[in-house]
Design a protein that fits this description.
The chain is an all-alpha fold. It is built from 8 helices and no strands. The model has no long low-confidence stretch (mean pLDDT 80).
C-alpha cells in the first residue's frame, strides 16, 4: 500500500515541527502502537498491564523523536506509513522485552517483571476459584455437620476455636471430623475419575 496524502502531509508537518503536528501524529498512531505491544507480548506469552503498555509506548515515541525525528526522516515512502511504523515499533518493543529479560537474568532487576507478576497473580486467583468450586462440590456430598466444619475451616478460614463456639461442638472433635471428611472427599473424587 502506498503512502496516502493524509500521512504524507502529517509527516511533512511533523518534520517541519508545526504546532499541533506531533499531537495529531500521536492521535493517529497510538492505537497502532498499542496493538503492536499487545500482539508482541501475546506472541511471547508475556502479560502486560496498563503501566507496561505506557512504558513501552514511551519507548516507541522516544525512538521516533530521537535525533531530530531521524526514524521518520529515513522513511522513503515505499510502503504505507502505518506499515513502516509497525516494523519500527515492533523492533523497539521486542528490544525492550529482551533487555528486560537479560537484566533479570543478570540480576540487575527483580527476577520477575511486573508483566510476570500480573500473570502469576491471575493464575493464582484462577486456581483459588477452581479449588473453591471443587471443594464446594465435594462438600455437598458430606453429612450436614461435616460439611459445615469443612466449609468454615477451608473456605472461610476459621480456627478450630471459632468453629467450636459457632457450631457448639467440642474443639477436639474438629480435627478428626476434617480428616474423615477429607478421606470421604478423596474417595468420592477417585470414584468420579474412574467413571
Amino acid at each position: 500500500m502506498a503512502l496516502t496524502d493524509i500521512d504524507k502531509n502529517l509527516l511533512r508537518r511533523c518534520l517541519a515541527e508545526e504546532p499541533g503536528a506531533w499531537k495529531d501524529f500521536v492521535d493517529r498512531f497510538i492505537g497502532l502502537f498499542t496493538h503492536v505491544i499487545h500482539h508482541t507480548a501475546h506472541a511471547r506469552s508475556i502479560r502486560v498491564n496498563d503501566n507496561d503498555v505506557d512504558d513501552l509506548l514511551s519507548e516507541v515515541f522516544l525512538v521516533l523523536l530521537a535525533n531530530d525525528y531521524r526514524v521518520l526522516r529515513n522513511f522513503r515512502g515505499n510502503s504505507s506509513l502505518a506499515t513502516y511504523l509497525t516494523v519500527i515499533s515492533r523492533r523497539v518493543v521486542v528490544k525492550k522485552m529482551v533487555e528486560r529479560r537479560m537484566a533479570e537474568a543478570l540480576g540487575h532487576v527483580s527476577t520477575k517483571s511486573k508483566m510476570e507478576y500480573v500473570s502469576e497473580e491471575h493464575a493464582r486467583h484462577q486456581q483459588v476459584v477452581e479449588d473453591q468450586e471443587e471443594i464446594q462440590n465435594m462438600i455437598r456430598q458430606l453429612p450436614p455437620t461435616d460439611a459445615q466444619i469443612v466449609e468454615q475451616y477451608h473456605l472461610q478460614g476459621k480456627s478450630y476455636q471459632q468453629i467450636s463456639s459457632e457450631l457448639d461442638i467440642p474443639e477436639n472433635s474438629i480435627g478428626p471430623t476434617l480428616s474423615r471428611a477429607r478421606n470421604r472427599m478423596r474417595e468420592n473424587q477417585s470414584n468420579t475419575r474412574t467413571l
